[in-house]
Design a protein that fits this description.
279 residues; two-stranded parallel ribbon; alpha/beta; 7-stranded mixed sheet; single chain
Length: 279
């Protein structure tokens, strides 16, 4: 099978960068991270890897990216234990395949992203059982109507590396509308403090040649999110790197010190929001 050539500066390249990080984590620690799909994808593409991605920052980024996916999968998996027929909605999905790690044979996945990202997903991943790809702008709430939501079955949303790029007012509007429309549902996403946005621009985005991207949304006090809507039952912040399982000694002493600092300072956090049940 001829490999798909990924041209520099294309949507496909942008989507493959975080996926390559998870591949690196899988290659280094196959007993810890379970994203076998990322390895499969890279066996079918001709992708130029930058020196930045191979270096120390790339290693740390790969651990963080793979851990983030593990966190999202953990929350989804826990929710599915009580709601086995739930909708699992990946907001800003890119080429993420987390649903395959949590699929219980009954749930239905919805993958949402901009049309060009969904086109790339269709090309590289194809159709999958009980998965629906939806091309949309998350701020256009008409996508709500394409989710076959049944309150008795439940719904869990997750977003990896997405809301940093949204204006706070847009996030508030989206979360409030979701909480009202999908009672009893759950939302999990990653966030940083306001101070962390500067580090994202300086170290990560510019380091990986994404210089024209701006970041806006941050969470300094998770209690503020609960106050956004009477339909939000609770909001809590968990550690990004150690919130769902301990760090591994093989990452290295210095690397683990840095990752623990990011957790304790709330520079990296995972936010879980529970929507109030109807009635």
């Amino acid at each position: 099978m001829e490999k798909i050539k990924i041209e520099p500066g294309t949507v496909q390249e942008t989507l493959l960068i975080p996926l390559y990080g998870r591949k690196q984590a899988m290659d280094r620690y196959p007993d810890i991270f379970m994203d076998h799909d990322c390895q499969e994808i890279f066996s079918h593409v001709d992708f130029q890897v930058s020196e930045q991605m191979r270096g120390k920052i790339g290693k740390i980024g790969s651990i963080m990216g793979a851990t983030r996916q593990f966190d999202m999968a953990s929350v989804c998996r826990t929710y599915l234990k009580d709601h086995p027929k739930a909708c699992v909605v990946n907001l800003g999905c890119g080429l993420d395949t987390t649903f395959r790690q949590v699929d219980n044979g009954q749930a239905h996945a919805y993958n949402l992203d901009f049309p060009d990202a969904i086109a790339a997903r269709n090309e590289l991943l194809g159709d999958r059982e009980r998965e629906t790809n939806i091309a949309c702008d998350l701020n256009d709430l008409s996508w709500f109507d394409q989710i076959d939501f049944r309150p008795e079955d439940g719904i869990v949303f997750f977003a990896s590396g997405v809301f940093y790029y949204f204006k706070t007012d847009d996030v508030k509007r989206l979360f409030s509308a979701m909480a009202e429309r999908f009672p009893g549902g759950k939302l999990v996403f990653d966030a940083t403090k306001k101070k962390g946005l500067k580090s994202m621009l300086k170290v990560w985005l510019k380091g990986f040649e994404m210089k024209d991207i701006s970041v806006y949304f941050s969470v300094d006090d998770v209690a503020v999110l609960k106050g956004w809507s009477s339909h939000i039952a609770s909001a809590q912040s968990n550690g990004y790197l150690e919130g769902y399982r301990p760090l591994d000694k093989r990452f290295g002493f210095i690397t683990n010190m840095l990752l623990r600092h990011l957790d304790k300072s709330k520079m990296c956090q995972v936010i879980e929001i529970d929507f109030a049940k109807k009635g």
